[in-house]
Amino acid sequence: MVSSRLSGLIAATYTPFHADGTLALSKVAPMVEHLIRAGNRGLYVCGSTGEGVSLTTLERCQVAEAYAQAANKRVPVIVQVGHNCIAEAKHLAAHAEEIGADAVSATCPSYFKVVDIVSLFEVVQAIASAAPRLPFYYYHIPAVTGSQVDIVSFLQFADGKIPNFAGIKYTDKNLAEFQRCLSLGGGKFDAVWGCDDMLLGAIATGARAAIGSTFNVLAPLYLEMIRDFESNRLAEAQQIQLQSIEFICKLGMYPFHTSMKELLRLLGHDFGTCRSPQRSLSKSESKTLHQGLQHLKCLFALDFAQSKLRTTPQPFLNNGP
Question: Where is the catalytic site (predicted)?
Fold first, then answer.
C-alpha cells in the first residue's frame, strides 16, 4: 500500500464531443480552469461520468492526456482505466503513467461478473502492476459492475499484496460498510466517497475526499456545506445537502449525464451530448429541464457560496499526508 492520500472535492470529469460525436479536446482546458476555480482539488477522468466505457482505447488515451496537460500538476488527475479486456485496461494504466497522471483507478470487468475475492484480486493486481509508480484505487460500484464481492473482505485479503494499492473509490450507499473500509488497519486504506447526494453523511462518517459528477457545477455549494458542518452549523449543512438532493432528483427525471451536459452548456461549456446508448434530450425535455432548474434554490445559492470561498485551511480540505 502507498501512503498518498486524496483530499477535498474531486470532479468526475465529462468528455466533450462535437456534434458529429468526435472528441472536442480543445474544450478540456477551459473546463479544467473552471473546475479548479470552483474549488475542486482533483480530477477523475474517464469514469462513469466521462463515459469511459463508451470510448475507444485511443480516445480514452487522448482524453486522459488532455486533462493531464490542462491540469499541469496543479491538482491530481486520476485516470479510470477499467475495461472488460484486462489487456486493454493494462495498456490504459501504462499510458496514464506515461502522460504524468497522478493515480490510476479501475472498475472490475462487468460482462463476465467477478464473483469471488481471488478473482477480483487477480484483476486488480494485473492492472495495478501496469502502472507500478502510481497509486491504484479500485472503483467499487456494484450497481454497475454487478460484482457482489464483499469490499471489506477484499481489502483485508489484498492488504500488503499489491505494492501500489492505495484504496478505493466507494460508490455505494452503505455508510456502515464505508466506515469499516475507512477504519481497516487503523485507516491504512484511502477510501474516497462517490455518492454526491450522501456527501454530508460520508463526511460525518470520516470521509476525507469525494469524487462526484455534480462537483462540475455545485462545488462551491458543497464546500459551503462542508464548512458549515466543520463549524457545527449542522442545520445549515443539512439544508445545503437537501438542495443538492433536489438538484440530483430534478436531473434524474431525464437521462442524468445528458442533463448535466445540458447544464454545462448553459454555463458556457458546450460538451455536446452523450454517446449511445445514453440518449439526447428532446427539445421539450430541454425546455422543461431549464424551467425546473430555474426554481431550484441550490442554483441561486451558487453566487453566495462562491463568494464565501476562503483560503483558510479546513480539516476536510487540508488533510493530505
Answer: 139 (proton donor/acceptor), 169 (schiff-base intermediate with substrate)
Of 121, 46, 32, the closest CA to residue 88 belongs to: 46
2 in any annotated domain: no
Q: Containing H/E element for 77?
A: strand 77-80
Whether 312 is in a domain gets the answer no
The C-alpha atoms of residue 82 and residue 84 are separated, in whole angstroms, by: 7
C-alpha cell at 213: 459528477
DSSP string spanning 147-207? ----HHHHHHHHTTTSTTEEEEEE-SS-HHHHHHHHHGGGTTSEEEE--GGGHHHHHHHT-
Burial of 186 (0-12, 13-18, 19+ CB in 10 A): exposed
pLDDT tens for 217-229 read: 999 999 999 999 9
Q: Which domain holds residue 138?
A: 8-307
- Residue 178, in any domain of the structure: yes
Which entry of 169, 222, 250, 254 is annotated as an active-site residue? Answer: 169
Q: Is 288 within any annotated ligand binding site? A: no
| 173 in catalytic set | no
**Is residue 49 a known part of a binding site?**
yes
Number of domains in the chain: 1
The three three-digit cell numbers of residue 11, written as one number? 470532479
CA-angle at 29, arms to 262 and 318, nearest 5°: 95
Amino acid at 30: P
Q: Note if 137 is an active site residue.
A: no
Q: Which member of 139, 170, 222, 254 is catalytic? A: 139
Mean pLDDT by 10 residues, the chain (321 residues): 78 97 98 96 98 98 98 98 98 98 98 97 98 98 96 97 97 98 95 98 97 95 95 96 92 94 90 95 89 66 45 48 37
Q: Is residue 205 part of a domain?
A: yes
CATH number, domain of 254, equals 3.20.20.70
